[in-house]
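Let's sit down with a protein and look at its sequence and fold side by side. Which protein we use is up to you, so please pick one and set it down. Label the sequence line and the structure token line clearly, so we can match residues to local backbone shapes. Go ahead whenever you are ready, and we will take it from there:

***
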Amino acid sequence: MCRGVWGACGSGAQVHGLILAGGQSMRMRSAAWPNADKGLMTWQGHQLVARARRYMRSQGIPAILISANRHLLDYARHGPVLTDPSGLPNGGPLAGVLAGLLHAADGWLFVAPVDVPELPVDLCQRLAAEASPQHPAYARTPAGPHPLCLLVHASQIGSLETFLHAGQRRVQGWLASVQARVVDFQPAIEWRNLNTPADWA
């Protein structure tokens, strides 16, 4: 359970969860889904945003935020919604992370993308064991990194603002710049991304 964050990151540390659902879902769009918004699509009987919120709660996260830039009222049914900070058009997922960090103020942010419907039960706990205020931690499997399965402290707001306002957008580029720590997980059914109609099929 992510309650381990308090031990790893300092007694009484506040942890917010952030569900990343602010993208344009361009790869999901088709004749059948011309205005697709992945987070609001139903998989195995539940909208992805609802599944992500339930997962965050299972990790022991008390305050859960949603990064979204479309269909805000629909997302607001599931929790407080944060849009991308002003001055960062097309900022990508890092703009959503920045919005979450600004809301978290002086605490921690546990980030998960909305389009990965199954994640490990020990994800936040293991990230918390490696993260520090100076060094975020993110997940990796033998198939590749999952840089948006991330635990990061609000002390990184300045570095992320500088990175984004310089026109940079690559998640792994920013993580490398702050010497983020990598936590290895074994491959399993978890980590499936539902990005395209073929993935859903």
User: Anything to note?
Assistant: The chain has one domain: 14-22+38-200. The domain at 14-22+38-200 is CATH 3.90.550.10 (Spore Coat Polysaccharide Biosynthesis Protein SpsA; Chain A). Strands lie at 15-20, 42-43, 46-47, 63-67, 81-82, 108-113, 137-141, 144-153, 181-184.
